[in-house]
Amino acid sequence: MRAGDDLRAVAERFGETANMAVLDGERAVYTAQVPGPHSMRTFTEVGRRVPLHSTGVGKALLAQLPAPAARRLLGSTGLPAATDHTVVDPDRLLDELDRIRRAGFAVDAEEQEVGVFCVAVPLAGVSSPAALSVSGPIHRFGHDRVPEAAALLRAAAEGIGGTLA
Protein backbone atom coordinates (compact mmCIF):
# COMPACT_ATOMS: atom_id res chain seq x y z
CA MET A 1 0.00 0.00 0.00
CA ARG A 2 1.50 3.31 -1.08
CA ALA A 3 0.10 5.36 1.86
CA GLY A 4 1.62 2.97 4.38
CA ASP A 5 5.02 3.11 2.69
CA ASP A 6 5.03 6.90 2.59
CA LEU A 7 3.83 7.24 6.18
CA ARG A 8 6.50 4.76 7.28
CA ALA A 9 9.18 6.82 5.54
CA VAL A 10 7.98 9.97 7.33
CA ALA A 11 7.87 8.20 10.70
CA GLU A 12 11.36 6.78 10.19
CA ARG A 13 12.84 10.09 9.03
CA PHE A 14 11.58 12.01 12.07
CA GLY A 15 11.38 9.22 14.62
CA GLU A 16 7.81 10.39 15.32
CA THR A 17 4.28 9.22 14.54
CA ALA A 18 2.89 9.79 11.03
CA ASN A 19 -0.85 9.87 10.31
CA MET A 20 -3.39 10.13 7.53
CA ALA A 21 -6.85 11.58 8.15
CA VAL A 22 -9.95 12.43 6.14
CA LEU A 23 -12.83 14.84 6.63
CA ASP A 24 -15.85 13.01 8.02
CA GLY A 25 -18.75 15.36 8.58
CA GLU A 26 -17.68 17.88 11.22
CA ARG A 27 -14.55 16.04 12.34
CA ALA A 28 -11.30 14.55 11.11
CA VAL A 29 -11.02 10.78 11.30
CA TYR A 30 -7.66 9.01 11.32
CA THR A 31 -7.45 6.37 8.60
CA ALA A 32 -3.81 5.25 8.85
CA GLN A 33 -0.91 5.57 11.26
CA VAL A 34 2.70 4.53 11.58
CA PRO A 35 3.92 5.02 15.16
CA GLY A 36 7.32 6.45 15.96
CA PRO A 37 9.95 4.19 17.55
CA HIS A 38 10.13 5.92 20.94
CA SER A 39 8.33 4.61 24.00
CA MET A 40 7.16 8.19 24.61
CA ARG A 41 5.26 9.09 21.44
CA THR A 42 1.96 10.42 20.22
CA PHE A 43 -0.70 7.86 19.59
CA THR A 44 -4.09 8.37 18.02
CA GLU A 45 -6.04 5.26 17.16
CA VAL A 46 -7.08 4.68 13.57
CA GLY A 47 -10.80 5.49 13.48
CA ARG A 48 -10.57 8.18 16.16
CA ARG A 49 -12.52 11.34 15.37
CA VAL A 50 -10.96 14.66 16.39
CA PRO A 51 -11.94 18.33 16.15
CA LEU A 52 -10.95 20.25 13.06
CA HIS A 53 -9.99 23.59 14.62
CA SER A 54 -7.46 22.33 17.17
CA THR A 55 -5.56 19.65 15.24
CA GLY A 56 -2.98 19.89 12.48
CA VAL A 57 -4.83 17.44 10.24
CA GLY A 58 -8.11 19.20 10.99
CA LYS A 59 -6.78 22.58 9.96
CA ALA A 60 -5.19 21.07 6.83
CA LEU A 61 -8.61 19.61 6.00
CA LEU A 62 -10.45 22.88 6.67
CA ALA A 63 -7.99 24.76 4.47
CA GLN A 64 -9.05 22.59 1.51
CA LEU A 65 -12.60 23.93 1.76
CA PRO A 66 -13.71 27.25 0.31
CA ALA A 67 -13.65 29.92 3.06
CA PRO A 68 -17.48 30.21 3.27
CA ALA A 69 -17.83 26.43 3.70
CA ALA A 70 -15.13 26.39 6.39
CA ARG A 71 -16.86 29.26 8.21
CA ARG A 72 -20.22 27.42 8.12
CA LEU A 73 -18.64 24.22 9.40
CA LEU A 74 -16.89 26.04 12.24
CA GLY A 75 -20.11 27.86 13.07
CA SER A 76 -21.92 24.56 13.49
CA THR A 77 -19.23 22.93 15.64
CA GLY A 78 -18.01 25.90 17.66
CA LEU A 79 -14.39 26.28 18.73
CA PRO A 80 -14.07 24.75 22.20
CA ALA A 81 -10.68 25.11 23.84
CA ALA A 82 -8.83 21.83 24.33
CA THR A 83 -5.83 23.67 25.84
CA ASP A 84 -4.81 27.26 26.57
CA HIS A 85 -3.20 27.28 23.08
CA THR A 86 -6.35 26.40 21.11
CA VAL A 87 -7.53 29.08 18.69
CA VAL A 88 -11.11 29.84 19.74
CA ASP A 89 -11.72 33.04 17.75
CA PRO A 90 -13.34 32.22 14.36
CA ASP A 91 -11.80 35.20 12.55
CA ARG A 92 -8.33 34.34 13.83
CA LEU A 93 -8.78 30.73 12.71
CA LEU A 94 -10.03 31.81 9.27
CA ASP A 95 -6.92 34.00 8.94
CA GLU A 96 -4.83 30.97 9.88
CA LEU A 97 -6.60 28.88 7.22
CA ASP A 98 -5.65 31.52 4.62
CA ARG A 99 -2.03 31.23 5.76
CA ILE A 100 -2.25 27.43 5.54
CA ARG A 101 -3.59 27.65 1.98
CA ARG A 102 -0.68 29.90 0.98
CA ALA A 103 2.04 28.01 2.85
CA GLY A 104 0.73 24.50 2.10
CA PHE A 105 0.99 23.22 5.68
CA ALA A 106 -0.69 23.51 9.07
CA VAL A 107 0.76 23.43 12.58
CA ASP A 108 -0.77 22.32 15.86
CA ALA A 109 1.44 23.76 18.60
CA GLU A 110 -0.07 22.21 21.73
CA GLU A 111 -3.58 23.20 20.60
CA GLN A 112 -5.16 19.77 21.00
CA GLU A 113 -2.88 18.36 23.68
CA VAL A 114 -0.30 20.07 25.89
CA GLY A 115 3.19 18.87 25.06
CA VAL A 116 2.37 17.71 21.50
CA PHE A 117 3.47 19.43 18.28
CA CYS A 118 2.19 18.50 14.81
CA VAL A 119 2.81 19.49 11.19
CA ALA A 120 0.18 18.54 8.59
CA VAL A 121 -0.32 18.98 4.85
CA PRO A 122 -3.33 18.58 2.59
CA LEU A 123 -3.50 15.49 0.41
CA ALA A 124 -4.29 16.92 -3.02
CA GLY A 125 -5.83 15.11 -5.95
CA VAL A 126 -8.28 12.95 -4.00
CA SER A 127 -12.07 13.04 -4.12
CA SER A 128 -12.63 14.35 -0.58
CA PRO A 129 -10.38 16.33 1.78
CA ALA A 130 -7.56 14.29 3.30
CA ALA A 131 -4.33 15.20 5.12
CA LEU A 132 -1.03 13.74 6.31
CA SER A 133 0.75 14.67 9.51
CA VAL A 134 3.71 13.95 11.72
CA SER A 135 3.53 14.65 15.44
CA GLY A 136 5.52 14.15 18.56
CA PRO A 137 6.42 15.50 21.98
CA ILE A 138 7.30 19.18 21.66
CA HIS A 139 10.64 18.73 23.45
CA ARG A 140 11.77 16.50 20.54
CA PHE A 141 9.69 17.76 17.64
CA GLY A 142 8.89 21.47 17.46
CA HIS A 143 8.94 24.63 15.38
CA ASP A 144 12.54 24.08 14.25
CA ARG A 145 11.42 20.95 12.35
CA VAL A 146 8.54 22.61 10.44
CA PRO A 147 10.31 23.34 7.11
CA GLU A 148 11.77 19.85 6.84
CA ALA A 149 8.55 18.14 7.98
CA ALA A 150 6.38 20.18 5.62
CA ALA A 151 8.64 19.37 2.64
CA LEU A 152 8.74 15.65 3.38
CA LEU A 153 4.99 15.49 4.04
CA ARG A 154 4.29 17.35 0.78
CA ALA A 155 6.39 14.82 -1.15
CA ALA A 156 4.55 11.95 0.53
CA ALA A 157 1.20 13.61 -0.16
CA GLU A 158 2.02 13.99 -3.85
CA GLY A 159 2.91 10.30 -4.08
CA ILE A 160 -0.16 9.13 -2.19
CA GLY A 161 -2.47 11.55 -4.00
CA GLY A 162 -1.22 10.31 -7.37
CA THR A 163 -1.86 6.72 -6.33
CA LEU A 164 -5.35 7.34 -4.92
CA ALA A 165 -6.56 9.70 -7.66
Number of helices: 5
The helical percent reads: 25-40%
- Binned strand content: 15-25%
Q: Report the mean per-residue pLDDT as an integer.
A: 89
Detailed description of the structure:
Strands 3-2-1-6-5-4 form a 6-stranded antiparallel β-sheet, sandwiched between helices. α1 runs antiparallel to α5 (146-164) and α3 (67-77) packs across α4. β1 (17-24) and β2 form a beta hairpin. The model has no long low-confidence stretch (mean pLDDT 89). Helix content is 39%, strand content 22%. The protein is of the alpha+beta class and 165 residues long. It contains 5 helices and 6 strands, in the order αβββαααβββα.
What's the SSE blueprint?
Elements: H1 2-14, E1 17-24, E2 27-34, E3 49-50, H2 56-62, H3 67-77, H4 90-103, E4 106-109, E5 116-122, E6 130-137, H5 146-164
Antiparallel strand pairs: 1-2, 1-6, 2-3, 4-5, 5-6
Notable traits:
single chain; 165 residues; alpha+beta; six-stranded antiparallel sheet; 5 helices; 6 strands; 39% helix; 22% strand
Précis, in short:
This protein has 165 residues and is α+β, with helices and mostly antiparallel strands. Helices cover 39% and strands 22% of the residues.
